[in-house]
Amino acid sequence: MTHVVTENCAGCRFTDCVSVCPVNCFHGDGERLYIDPVLCIDCGACIPKCPVKAIVEDIDILGSPMIELNEEKSAILPVITAKQEPLPGAEARRDALLAEGAA
Amino acid sequence: MTGSIAIIGSGPAGFYAAEALLNSGEALCVDIFERLPVPFGLVRYGVAPDHQKLKRVTAVFETVAAHPDFSFIGNVTAGRDVSFEELGAAYDAVILATGAISDRKLGIPGESLPGSHSATEFVSWYNGHPEFRDHSFDLSHPCAAIIGNGNVALDVCRILAKTPEDLASSDICDHALKVLSDSCITDIVVAGRRGPLQASFSIRELREFAAIPGVEAVFDPAEIDEASASPDEMDAAARMLTILKGFSHPDEPRKAARRVHFRFLLSPSRIEGEGRAERVVLSRCKLEGEAFARRAVATEAETELSAGLVLRSVGYRGTPLPGVPFDDAKGVIPSREGRVIDRDGETVSGLYTAGWIRRGPSGIIGTNRECAAETAEAVLADLRADRLTRDPSLRSRLLSRLQTGAAQTVNLAGWHRIDQMEQTVGAAQGKPREKITSVAEMLAAAAVNMPEPALP
Ligand SMILES: Cc1cc2nc3c(=O)[nH]c(=O)nc-3n(C[C@H](O)[C@H](O)[C@H](O)COP(=O)(O)OP(=O)(O)OC[C@H]3O[C@@H](n4cnc5c(N)ncnc54)[C@H](O)[C@@H]3O)c2cc1C
Ligand SMILES: NC(=O)c1ccc[n+]([C@@H]2O[C@H](COP(=O)([O-])OP(=O)(O)OC[C@H]3O[C@@H](n4cnc5c(N)ncnc54)[C@H](OP(=O)(O)O)[C@@H]3O)[C@@H](O)[C@H]2O)c1
Ligand code: SF4
Ligand code: SF4
Fold this sequence. Notes:
- The complex is a heterodimer.
- Chain A contains two helices and four strands.
- By secondary structure, chain A is of the alpha+beta class.
- Chain A has a single domain (3-100), classed as Alpha-Beta Plaits, CATH 3.30.70.20.
- In chain A, strands 1-4 form a two-stranded antiparallel sheet. Chain A has a two-stranded antiparallel sheet with strand order 2-3.
- Chain A starts with a strand and ends with a helix.
- Chain B has two domains: 2-101 and 317-410, NAD(P)-binding Rossmann-like Domain (Rossmann fold); 105-314, FAD/NAD(P)-binding domain.
- Chain B contains 17 helices and 18 strands.
- In chain B, helix 5 (84-90) packs across helix 15.
- Classes of the chains: A alpha+beta, B alpha/beta.
- The A-B interface holds A 19-24, 41-46, 57, 81-82 and B 12, 23, 53-54, 56-57, 59-60, 202, 204, 364-367, 369-370, 373.
- One iron/sulfur cluster (SF4) is lined by residues 3, 20-23, 25, 35, 40-46 of chain A.
């Protein structure tokens, strides 16, 4: 089992999730974050922190390519350990996602 | 900028404060003082022994501890072995991260009967806390009741419900495993005073009950008060309700040796029995108040549950430290952005707080990381503003007084010897570790070098 960041994170990246992760297992690029499934201890601290509900448990999206994508990307991208400035347009994107009911 | 910081308490809050300070880029040294000879607070003594994956967080704490400017000073109780005045004089800043190990009471008749305990006591016992190791629990009655609907209630329920075979590969202490192996318990009731929509436990923890070998979870959907719930509340609780509805109905014939009954809208009014707990009397509750802020209000109707073991799991509580401001109503050290404040709301210079003793006993391990990082920011801001001053020789004098004093202190190498010994003994039994449960034995293990492991 592990936790997985889904595509909702793209273009948003509030990184609120990072400040509560007890084991520093978030990795990311300029676009979005990924969780290292080897390090994640499944504590669930990050889920309520994400304003766009981008984080899910793998058992809720079984078969989704997102699971492998997190595994692959987290292995090559740098670890993000502290909250960063959200990407420009993040607020608007969150509002749009919330209006859509996706988040 | 240079500085030295004392952190009191080596739980998650203490370690995350140390992490933030040591990663700040400033030349700081951080000394963590711990009451016990061993570190990690509730990660060692709270987190359930069958949740080993979570215990891997200690690898992060060990990385922090490996920093050259970090020291662990175990077996030192702040406020007893060293006063807060002495600490305040010796360090630029003192961060109080002492947690909340004490328990809350229900305040009902019969609560102190033998057989009625706090979940805190039970947890500390099965996790081998030296102060609770010799407590005893009578599991000879077939029924047990757990009061409260938090994650701790589910932890203690799982430990009571699981078979000894299932627990044997956890790091549950041997003394507890022996008692649990002889348990006669067949039925455990988990009683919440509010409804399933208001339960405080998490979905992940509840879901586990659907698949524990030898255990059948039971729920009566009639206890969902759908009529008085708002659609938003129903939505928010949808996943919780799906899991509960997947459990057996109480009228179905028993499928497993142990049944766990999830009951709701029941608030305990008294515990009764001849010289020991034999039953709990609970009042039926109805919900009042706004959506997402409903309160349980007891009605005249009562239900009786037979129970020889009653565990109240209604929250932890912080305890005051001598000479340090304390908010007795909330059981926390009052603070603003991590800075301790006194009764008049003035900041107490050089004194900070983080973790459960700052926020109260809620939140999971990672919550303390965010909390402690904020506290560390306050310390750094004050150090940079040069608001704090001290005489550097006082710290070395304090440390050498402690190291040469009558009481033995435990440093990081000492902890690693204890850790190694626990893991070696545990491995022989197919467990991650067998905890040492007395302070004297911990001190002995910390002091000597490990003998070479015997060749097979
Ligand atoms: C039963 C239980 C199970 C839990 N399970 C989970 C879980 O599965 N997942 C999760 O994420 N979270 C879990 N938690 C929550 C988590 O343990 C807490 O959020 C966290 O431990 C709080 O950290 P803290 O540092 O504030 O306090 P603590 O962990 O309590 O650490 C405080 C430390 O201070 C020391 N201390 C106290 N007084 C003094 C003194 N005067 N001098 C020196 N040292 C002192 C104590 O000995 C202790 O080591 C659980 C909590 C409990 C109670
Ligand atoms: N696996 C995990 O992630 C894990 C495991 C253990 C602990 N933890 C965390 O540690 C923290 C502490 O857990 P906790 O279970 O002690 O606290 P909690 O979640 O606050 O639960 C306390 C429970 O006690 C009930 N309660 C309080 N007073 C009561 C009374 N007088 N009568 C009846 N019921 C009463 C509360 O009901 P009301 O809601 O009605 O007040 C609530 O259900 C939580 O944040 C928890 O998530 C996490
Ligand atoms: S909080 Fe959510 S959206 Fe923001 S970075 Fe984390 S996963 Fe992405
Ligand atoms: S579940 Fe916990 S360990 Fe895993 S990514 Fe989220 S915060 Fe980190």
